[in-house]
Write a structure and sequence with these properties.
Length: 156
Amino acid sequence: MRPTHLILCLACLQAAGATPALGQANDGLTQDQRVGFRRLVAERNRLHQELAELDRQAADAVKAGRPTARLNARQIGVEDELDVVRLRLETTAVRLGLAVPEPPDPVAVDRKSAETGRRQLNRGVARTQVELRRQTRAILASLDFEPFLSGPMAEE
């Protein structure tokens, strides 16, 4: 049998549903198990991002001199919830023989949003500097240096 015939046979069998899709292992997991695992991963990622946001808010509050007791309490609550979800995720992964994916890096997400914000702010900074130059020129144009220049120092 030629390799092209083998490929055609596999494609026909796959289309008929007789074999798993190429790249998928026949690991015996049900659809519910896969969906449950993906749901736990999504919940873990959401809590991870929420905790990073609470950390940023608490840092901003400290910089502004505002009290952080409520934010700290929310951080602890989210940490506890995240610990429970991580435990459930790891237990499920071991039971099903799956690898636990890494959570998204909040620093990388933060860098991307910071870069976007920086680009947007740069337009505002440029407009502000144009206006500041205009106002500075108006102030300098309104100054009368004649009394200063004709004073006693000018005669010597």
